[in-house]
Amino acid sequence: MLTKRIIPCLDVTGGRVVKGTSFTELKDAGDPVELGAFYYAEGADELVFLDIGATPEARDTMVDIVERVAKRVFIPLTVGGGLRTVDDIKRMLKAGADKTSINTAAVLHPELISQGAERFGSQCIVVAIDARRKDGDRAAWEVCTHGGRKPTGIDAIEWAKKAVSLGSGEILLTSWDADGHRAGYDLELTAAVSDAVSVPVIASGGAGNLEHLYEALMQGKADAVLVASIFHYGNYSVRDAKEFLARKNIPVRMTG
Amino acid sequence: MIAVIDYGAGNLGSVVNALRSIGHAPVITQKPIEIVKAAAVILPGVGAAGDAMKHLNDLGISDAIKQIVKENKPLFAICIGLQVLFDETEEGGHHTCLGIFPGTVKRFPAGLKIPHMGWNQVNQKITHPMFTDIPDNTNFYFVHSYYAAPQNPAIIAGTTDYGITFCSAVARDNVFATQFHPEKSGRWGLRLYQNFLDMALKRKPQKAQ
After folding, report:
1. Looking at the predicted structure, is the pLDDT value of residue B206 above 80?
2. What's the rounded mean pLDDT across residues A92-106?
3. Fewer CB atoms < 10 Å away: N or C end of chain B?
4. Number of domains in chain B
């Protein structure tokens, strides 16, 4: 039986891992290579590295980080943040990423999804969707770009479907309302996207305790959960999360 | 000398990193002459089988692979590397493959999330040196939309359940192939590479069973 994945997310800027409430209050949470190796040893199923600085200089730093992580960590690596072209994608894959996550650039230029999928395979192209509830409408979400700052008016569910039809092999779905608040994932959003697409969905934004992971996988119907703060600040370990989920009969990969 | 075939497969670097991490520096090559001269060969793969076949044919590697199999040299094929060993694939319409194993590569049935992506258990169907010290039903990392359906069930070394029970590892003589990615499967994946090195470097090629 396919297990549910627990994926620590490392937000990187200036070569360091950071995480803060809705990304506005950044706090240093460590060296990405060391932290990546630590989570690998702890039993993480994959790792996601997001470059939240995403300047051209930051991209060089990220390539270096990915190269060093790939020599020590033998689980899938997803890299995202500021990737705009097929060449950007190629560079990260060559450095050792298994998948690349594209967000703003995919909204602005949806053909980047199909070009990337054609060139490298759908499994390499993760479309990251930052979604926010529309005012006055409880069950509708719009896509935001530019690190969540810019609402686009595009319906998040429709965008997820379109991204998959263009060749995205996975959706990384972040609730911008929930992110950083540790009050749980947006389960309604996660379930709506998971039901709408035929590819795996990673739930992101809002994990505050282990019950929240369980809810995202059960009610949210997610295939994987992205976790940042509660791991980085040591509230729970990857092992704690897996033991908790296993006790609740969620299939997870236990490591020795 | 172990050769890792470089035909543009996306996971070449990961395979090489995995081998280096267990202390082996492989030769990375796309030259048929080097491939046939190697003591053992690894065929990586990720992406689309049709593209992979095109590259293998264009580079003259297809014949080299057939030759090493004929000579019973150890060959370890991964993911698309496994799929191209069969007669044909349904991916992208239809593509003729290497025909080393009779059988077809098919798409997972509708209704499942595709690709099959993540960690899943491999049920070991045979005793094989490649499985040395690896517990039965260990989780390995998969990412694929198509699976191989061998005509001869005797070559099935491992199976995995995803909607259906499919063949996730094959073995015949000195050929071993996995649908999953050992280079992305943590400790037990690295152990599989170690077992291949042990098989390839410390023993003379021999008929399995």
Report:
1. no
2. 95
3. C
4. 1
Which chain B residue is nearest to residue A44, measuring alpha carbons? B186
How distant is the Cα of A168 from the closest Cα of chain B, in angstroms?
A: 10
Residues of B in contact with A40 (CB under 8 A): 186
Q: Is residue A254 part of a domain?
A: no
Distance of alpha carbon A232 from alpha carbon A42, whole angstroms: 13
Nearest residue of chain B to residue A75 (CA atoms):
B184
In eight-state DSSP terms, residue A166 is H
State the angle between helix axes of B49-58 and B61-70 in degrees (0 to 180), rounded to the nearest 10: 90
ipTM given for this complex: 0.93
Check if A130 is active-site. yes
**Domain interval for residue A79:** 5-247
User: Residue A134: which of A60, A186, A79, A80 has the closest Cα?
Assistant: A186
- Residues A59-86 have a mean pLDDT of 94
- How far away is chain B from the Cα of A3, in angstroms, using its nearest Cα? 6
Please list every residue in chain B whose beta carbon sits closer than 8 Å to the beta carbon of residue A256: 187
Q: What CATH number is attached to the domain comprising A50?
A: 3.20.20.70
Inform me whether the pLDDT recorded for A148 exceeds 90. Answer: no
Cβ contact (<8 Å) for B116 and A223?
Answer: no
Q: Tell me which residue range forms the domain holding B114.
A: 2-202
A21 pLDDT more than 60: no
